[in-house]
Specification:
34% of the residues lie in helices and 16% in strands. It is of the alpha/beta class and 535 residues long. The strands form nine sheets. Strands 6-4-8-19-11 form a five-stranded mixed β-sheet. It has a four-stranded mixed β-sheet with strand order 13-16-12-17. The protein has a three-stranded mixed β-sheet with strand order 2-1-24, covered by helices on one side. α3 packs across α4 and α10 packs across α11. The N terminus is likely disordered. This is Extracellular solute-binding protein.
Length: 535
């Protein structure tokens, strides 16, 4: 709920108004009342009926493209201005002034001059640009690139959007008002609403299994079941192992909190770190059992994570965990390579066979900012354009921004859009969608069964999702604590792989406490006292 930055190791709790004493910088507290001053109201749209409805914030599923498409923006939003826009790009940079950009610029009534940069080296580019005075009118910054002084630069260089979007003001832009509150909370930097968010799903990781390989066999519904599954499906002589490295999702099975800043929970009024909990030890002990049973592929044990997908699609492992974003790509790829390939996601369970506790992922991952140098009129013009960019699936605006011009950039085959070669070059490289994005949806008209499977799986998990203590809060730990948690990355691997004992955690936790863990606890307690929780 708050934007928490660090200057000289002192937390700057610049939330939603008010000021405090201390380091000479603005501080504040975030209460529910104060937060309403900067966060937009939520006004969900239901323009197109999904085939699988959203449950508790899960992504709705669409198996087909509506015909006709719905119009969500009634008039041309722009007023003829030019905007210089810098975004990351993973792929080949499209030519400037190509037919895709021409069509989009005409539709929005402005000229967006995109300057896409290599996403793999974007960190360095962001730092160089923000260190100078020539700031683009519009700039996209992924959360994982907000290192070093970048958060401070965001506060210094980019416009406060609160006067334009806070509360009911956002309803001037219906597609922006359709973005969930959590994503907007996470777009508060330095106490002001500065980012236009790209929302993320409520849960983004799953244990996948090869249904075609297990046939009518039962899928696990508890930790003991998972061990039994490992014994049944591991056959080293046939080069088949039941599991790849499942540690990410084993933590979910044991209800473990995520990593920083979400690795704290309140117990009897005291902050407790995940490494201090019995669940952490139980999860490690269980993962060790998978190792001792020989159920984990040797290459996974050897940290060869890059090949995990290949081990799964080739049938050398029956289960592996991964981000759900790669589900469609793998299914599409295997459609021609292996017609029997059936990849499904396992419903999460508690280790004891009960209902799981699943901690929600960060509500947004990528943000777009507007330069402070823009006039009020130009900010309002761009927000109207961003409203166009945030149009949801099933709208004319979504099709244009995501697929380009029908007949030029895509064609329809059996009701599903498919890029033409020109579309692959001009429309497929994502740039426009960074301006603002609708809530996540699972829309696969080319893979309707997958859309049903994926959306139904998420709908079943969503009722078990809880928000961690500091949900939706931009927190940067002081640099002096940056390496505190690092030893546990190696230690948990050593324990899981038989090189150290579970009890070795106790000494490591004591060292963590003495080396700054207790001070870090107090630092977070101060945030909690002044800002409240985010859940």
């Amino acid at each position: 709920m708050a934007a928490v930055a660090v200057a000289g190791g002192v937390p700057l709790l610049a939330a939603c108004g008010g000021s405090g004493s201390g380091s000479g910088t603005k501080e504040g507290t975030t209460t529910g009342k104060a937060l309403k001053k900067v966060v937009p109201a939520y006004a969900p749209l239901n323009l197109v009926e999904p085939d699988v409805a959203s449950v508790n914030g899960s992504s709705p599923g669409f198996t087909k493209l509506p015909d006709p498409l719905v119009t969500s923006v009634k008039s041309v939003p722009g007023k003829g201005s030019e905007f210089r826009v810098m975004t990351p790009l993973w792929g080949t940079v499209p030519k400037k002034n190509n037919p895709y950009y021409t069509a989009v610029n005409k539709a929005v009534g402005a000229t967006l001059n995109f300057d896409p940069q290599d996403g793999n080296t974007y960190q360095d580019k962001i730092g160089a640009v923000l260190a100078g005075s020539d700031i683009p009118d519009v700039m996209t910054i992924p959360g994982w690139n907000m290192q070093g002084q970048i958060r401070n630069a965001i506060t210094a260089k980019f416009a406060d959007l609160s006067p334009y979007l806070a509360g009911d003001a956002v309803k001037k832009y219906p597609n922006l008002a359709n973005i969930p509150t959590g994503a907007w909370q996470y777009s508060v930097f330095g106490g002001k609403l500065r980012g236009l968010p790209m929302p993320t799903p409520v849960i983004g990781n799953a244990i996948f299994y090869r249904k075609d390989l297990i046939g009518s066999g039962a899928v696990p519904a508890g930790a003991d079941d998972l061990l039994a599954f490992g014994k049944e499906y591991t056959a080293p002589r046939k080069k088949v192992w039941a599991f790849d490295d499942l540690w990410t999702c084993i933590q979910k099975i044991y209800g473990l909190l995520p990593d920083a800043p979400h690795y704290w929970q309140l117990e009897n009024g005291k902050l407790v770190h995940k490494i201090e909990t019995k669940e952490y030890r139980e999860a490690l002990a269980f993962a060790r059992k998978l190792h001792d049973g020989g159920y984990v592929h040797p290459d996974a044990e050897a940290n060869k994570d890059a090949d995990s997908k290949i081990r799964f699609t080739s049938g050398h492992v029956v289960m592996y965990n991964d981000g759900t974003g790669g589900w469609k790509g793998m299914v599409t790829e295997q459609a021609t390579a292996n017609a029997k390939f059936d990849m499904q996601a396992l419903d999460f369970f508690s280790h004891d066979g009960g209902k799981p506790v699943l901690w929600q992922d960060d509500p947004a991952g990528i943000f777009t900012f507007l330069s402070k140098k823009l006039s009020k009129a130009r900010i309002e013009e761009f927000l109207a354009i961003a409203d166009y960019a945030a149009a949801p699936y099933g709208t004319k605006e979504f099709m244009l921004t995501n697929y380009g011009v029908k007949g030029t950039h895509y064609t329809l085959k059996d009701g599903a859009p498919a890029y033409t070669p020109q579309g692959v070059q001009e429309a497929q490289p994502s740039t426009f969608l960074f301006l603002a994005s609708p809530p996540t949806s699972i829309a696969y008209p080319d893979q309707p069964q997958l859309a049903k499977d994926y959306a139904a799986w998420m709908a079943r998990q969503a009722p078990h999702v809880k928000k961690p203590l500091f949900f939706g809060m931009q927190i940067v730990e002081p640099q002096r604590y940056a390496s505190l948690y690092t030893p546990f990355d190696d230690l948990q691997k050593d324990i899981r792989r038989g090189r150290k004992k579970v009890s070795d955690i106790d000494d490591a936790v004591n060292t963590w406490k003495k080396s700054g863990g207790e001070k870090l606890r107090a630092w977070y307690q101060d945030i909690l006292d002044k800002n409240g929780s985010g859940n």
